[in-house]
């Protein structure tokens, strides 16, 4: 699970390719995709994340537990809230 800060930081140091090298499933919440690719168009990480999603190397998911997302959103950003909600649903499997 990656949030926008991790993607942007990797892009700034030209290390987004490490995501492919890890060889594991990488998921970003919908809010992170929106923040990095849509709102952050032409900023670090935007093109890289868009390409990884297009190639199927990164999955974009929307958390089902919207109540948890909303409860976390007050102290956290939407991307971080969705990442925690997605992580908790994956851990519960």
- Estimate nothing, just give the exact number of structural domains: 1
The parts where pLDDT drops under 50 for at least 5 residues are none
Structural class of the secondary structure composition? mainly alpha
What percent of residues adopt helix (DSSP H or I)?
55-70%
- Would you report the number of β strands? 2
Which whole number gives the mean pLDDT?
Answer: 90
Euclidean distance between termini CA atoms: 15 Å
Order of helices and strands: HHEHHEHH
Radius of gyration: 13 Å
The number of helical runs is 6
Q: Choose one word for the global shape.
A: globular
Strands across the major sheet, in which order? 1-2
- Strand count, sense and closure of the main sheet? 2 strands, parallel
Strand content: 5-15%
Plain-language structure description:
By secondary structure, the chain is mainly α. It has one domain (4-91). Helix content is 59%, strand content 9%. The chain is built from six helices and two strands; from the N terminus they run H-H-E-H-H-E-H-H. The chain has a two-stranded parallel sheet with strand order 1-2. Helix 3 packs antiparallel against helix 6 (78-91) and helix 5 (66-73) crosses helix 6. It is globular, with a radius of gyration of 13 Å. The relative contact order is 0.20.
